[in-house]
Design a protein that fits this description.
about 170 residues, alpha+beta, three-stranded antiparallel sheet
């Protein structure tokens, strides 16, 4: 069994979430499923694939369980897409005309930010309406700052890749 296959199996075990995953292992799995890793312009790496929600992850070892859960969802989505492709279904590709203007407009929208204490220490923050837009930090002030950065790079990647962006509920 290839090393990536072992990582996928380790992440995809039902009922458990590995707590000792390294960033490079998560990166290998996401790249295996066709996501490219953008160099960070802030505190986060963005993993992108055209037509898929971008995923933002800060480079920390070990990777927090919340991020591993997101990778598990990617694995399951990719498996479902493979089944859909086998049955002949296709997706539409729609790209926005003026990405800079759209990006600024989305950044101004009042997306709800949720924050919770992380059992492993620090805080986790995410935007429920932006799947995969998640961050963490040791302090409440830093997690709020990181959340803005994560939202910025997530929206940019989603616009560039033609991913549907939910409006705030």
């Amino acid at each position: 069994m290839a090393k990536v296959d072992k990582l996928i199996k380790r992440i995809n075990v039902e009922g458990t979430v590995p707590s000792n995953m390294h960033f490079i292992e998560v990166q290998r799995v996401l790249e295996w499923y066709g996501r490219t890793c953008d160099n960070p312009t802030g505190s986060h790496y963005t993993f992108r694939k055209k037509g898929c929600n971008p995923i933002t992850i800060p480079k920390h070892d070990p990777v927090k369980r919340e991020y591993v859960r997101m990778v598990r969802e990617v694995i399951r989505e990719e498996e479902a897409k493979a089944e859909a492709e086998a049955s002949g279904k296709e997706e539409d590709d729609i790209l926005p005309n003026n990405m800079m203007e759209l990006h600024e407009a989305y950044m101004r929208l009042p997306y709800k930010l949720k924050i919770k204490a992380d059992p492993e220490g620090g805080f986790i923050a995410w935007y429920p309406d932006l799947p995969g837009c998640l961050t963490c930090a040791e302090t409440l002030a830093q997690v709020k700052k990181n959340a803005i950065d994560a939202k910025r790079v997530w929206l940019q990647a989603a616009l560039e890749d033609g991913v549907h962006i939910n409006l705030p509920r």
